[in-house]
């Protein structure tokens, strides 16, 4: 039976809208949603299973609402990964960084307020804005997808947002922001009347190239900064839905007000903690994905394609007169990538070496390289 939406009091601004999401197709090479291509190793699976079994014995009770143990483990992980010392009160977590961002906008956005970002960027951002009744403004990135500090300052002065979302490395372009650009936004945000929270979305942070710093290093001096991360990418745990954020304790306290009670299930907490115990091995895998990414960028450039610099686990490349035909040709050969970004560009996630061979062979055929 199909639902008759006409009879339901749907919010007028939601009428006719489709749910967000890339196609989930059953093809051999899934390179369209920037997942980690490596399934958890057998020892990680065994540890996760044991942790879930233990949690299962207590599922008659609600979980630890403040998930202190998980927050402690996440702080420990960030200390090793970025060299930044954080207290447990500075860490927050939720069901994916999508939910983290929703918490941020529930607390700091809302009717009559504006969230600002710089396009092209992650296509969920306007949806968080819509769902929290926050106004959405997209400033512009440069032709090479960098953010000009003067453009950023002017946009903040003009729109006086209460939240700025900066994806770095950015999706779908892969571009990381240099500290100068982030600092320019932080300075301009400090001057916004009524205050402004700056979120640096580092969903792909672990894939950044050597010498590119994390915005976590700026936290100590900027109480209006929040850095969000996820276990979906580097940890290869997209199915578990765990995102997290680091910020000043007062900012985290504001997020605690808007979260649903017990939003992070005992099973989720157990899975995340078990995976974090394997961080060193998982990070070694991130190293090989980074190498695979750099090799892919070189290969595409050698064939005369334009490729955005990437600090992520995906690459934006082009330019094609008919990008849809290229996307379809790859799909016909069992390789699913993403038709996203400015006109003419396509995005491919970094997969296993076998995935990359299949992608390259298919692209050579389809695009006549
Ligand atoms: N931020 C960016 C920039 C992303 O690309 C994604 C996932 N595609 C997310 C956040 C959300 O990831 P998750 O909810 O799985 O943590």
Automatic annotation (TrEMBL):
Reaction(s) catalysed by this chain, per the record, are: L-histidinol phosphate + 2-oxoglutarate = 3-(imidazol-4-yl)-2-oxopropyl phosphate + L-glutamate
Q: Output the Gene Ontology terms for molecular function.
A: histidinol-phosphate transaminase activity
The record's listing under InterPro entries reads: Aminotrans_II_pyridoxalP_BS (IPR001917), Aminotransferase_I/II_large (IPR004839), HisP_aminotrans (IPR005861), PyrdxlP-dep_Trfase (IPR015424), PyrdxlP-dep_Trfase_major (IPR015421), PyrdxlP-dep_Trfase_small (IPR015422)
Q: Under which EC number(s) is this enzyme classified?
A: 2.6.1.9
First-tier enzyme category under EC: transferase
Instruction: Tell me the domain of life.
Output: Bacteria
Keywords, comma-separated and alphabetical: Amino-acid biosynthesis, Aminotransferase, Histidine biosynthesis, Pyridoxal phosphate, Transferase
Modification type N6-(pyridoxal phosphate)lysine: residues: 233
Q: Which cofactor does it need?
A: pyridoxal 5'-phosphate
Q: Domain Aminotransferase class I/classII large spans what residues?
A: 31-356
Pathway(s) the chain acts in: Amino-acid biosynthesis; L-histidine biosynthesis; L-histidine from 5-phospho-alpha-D-ribose 1-diphosphate: step 7/9
Describe its partners and assembly state. Answer: Homodimer.
The record's annotation in NCBIfam families points to:
hisC, PRK03317.1
- Name the family the entry cites: Belongs to the class-II pyridoxal-phosphate-dependent aminotransferase family. Histidinol-phosphate aminotransferase subfamily.
The protein here is known as Histidinol-phosphate aminotransferase
